[in-house]
Amino acid sequence: xxxxxxxxxxxxxxxxxxxxxxxxxxxxxxxxxxxxxxxxxxxxxxxxxxxxxxxxxxxxxxxxxxxxxxxxxxxxxxxxxxxxxxxxxxxxxxxxxxxxxxxxxxxxxxxxxxxxxxxxxxxxxxxxxxxxxxxxxxxxxxxxxxxxxxxxxxxxxxxxxxxxxxxxxxxxxxxxxxxxxxxxxxxxxxxxxxxxxxxxxxxxxxxxxxxxxxxxxxxxxxxxxxxxxxxxxxxxxxxxxxxxxxxxxxxxxxxxxxxxxxxxxxxxxxxxxxxxxxxxxxxxxxxxxxxxxxxxxxxxxxxxxxxxxxxxxxxxxxxxxxxxxxxxxxxxxxxxxxxxxxxxxxxxxxxxxxxxxxxxxxxxxxxxxxxxxxxxxxxxxxxxxxxxxxxxxxxxxxxxxxxxxxxxxxxxxxxxxxxxxxxxxxxxxxxxxxxxxxxxxxxxxxxxxxxxxxxxxxxxxxxxxxxxxxxxxxxxxxxxxxxxxxxxxxxxxxxxxxxxxxxxxxxxxxxxxxxxxxxxxxxxxxxxxxxxxxxxxxxxxxxxxxxxxxxxxxxxxxxxxxxxxxxxxxxxxxxxxxxxxxxxxxxxxxxxxxxxxxxxxxxxxxxxxxxxxx
Length: 614
Ligand code: NAP
Fold this sequence. Notes:
By secondary structure, the protein is α/β, with parallel strands linked by helices.
């Protein structure tokens, strides 16, 4: 135990730091000491600062909360639980899954895991190592462990909450004692998460009641990357400064460049972070739902102590552009539809996933009419959730602004026009209007601290968004490492997002390589001589083809310490890009498939292969 200066409580510092502290503070006057204390507090509050943990508390007296999070929701909930436990004087440590010391697992006594599931049942990137370790033969026996798992997922995917389920089952197989049932949160996260967290907190208090409460607990770092009063629960009303179409007239896409003001909010972000937007549903869609059901828009509906007109519930408080399984189930009963009932059978998971991802509430109501009262409808629909957009700017360049790259989802369904909630909300706003936003930090998607490192940015479609911020930051900070961008979209002529900016940066020697994959260009149509005619997917050119073509060069960059980033579609693109990366590593590094996997896994552990995909 470190020795404390006489008369003071034992500080949570190693011995050599206590000595350093004594030397540092010796002879300082009051202003000097105050400055030092403020400096240290500032460091503790910085994003990425190690959370305070009761590291020296015996495992038997401590709660460990481990989270795996792709978009920040699992992290937010884990932080909430840790703060609550800490506030009650429990010894708690909060760890992102990739910083969990695996060798400590066998000694763990009380463990909560909060973890999301991606796309086809994959763990979030930061939990890949932990999940593999637990699945593997080297996983230890966990005879003294008591645990509980909260999974986060999206029930429109067949593998709903697969990661949470697997971990929950595996911890039990290894000998752990499940304290209470696994929580499986859907997109309306809080419905399941809030009671699970409450139970977790009460159970932890019960389990640790014989352990001495901590005499003093250093505060855990705050959840947001910012010292600002604005948060997910209390969003900032950001003024819209610009809303410009990026795609040409001939494009089948309507991609917008959106600029929002953070002036006066105190909000700040780093390249790689996301902006959360609380949308409102398209008024035309709300009207269509009301008319389809023959309901009165002004009917007052109460939920808890909130009493609002039905139109407000549907416009601002409930999801009507995304369908969920529980609603479909209730609607099937009301509509007495054998077809819908069949869709809900376990062997129909794929078909159900297709319906849930392609149909909206209105499609369902039109195809399978049924009566709903205002109260029942509001109770059955999920609460509206905010949408996250990767920020497409760096504050070093744009100051108190956040830029976004938004694909406006709008299409004609058999029953009329349909829109995506947030992308339509953003695209339909005019300059001067205000929108509720917050910052969602993403510590896993960061530029290298070492400015001499090269970076490779792979971002097809709107996945290019964060890389505009990355490049702005690299230019502003005078980073000497090279920057390589791989971008793809259907047509060079209409869909080359931020074309002028990339080309100017290329000319100025700030962007060192730009590789393009315009998937639907004919050889004569695009700027590159080697693009092949689009004649079905087999002939399309995607970014991963460029990766393979440039394999030798890419491998040389990796061997030289480059960081690789992937942003965009998680289900197909990110998977195919990973396969191409593995191939390049195997081919040019002389590895077999397993060694290539280890190589990439190692890069990921080092934070040199990071993905922002969903
Ligand atoms: P997209 O549909 O992903 O298409 C972009 C380009 O990628 C097109 O040329 C497309 O070709 C091609 N592509 C299709 N399948 C591919 C595959 N398997 N591998 C590689 N390339 C493939 O672009 P988007 O509509 O702009 O969507 C981007 C995705 O990124 C969305 O899923 C979005 O949720 C996600 N995302 C966006 C942000 C953001 O901040 N905006 C951040 C993170 C993730 P074809 O269409 O010709 O087949």
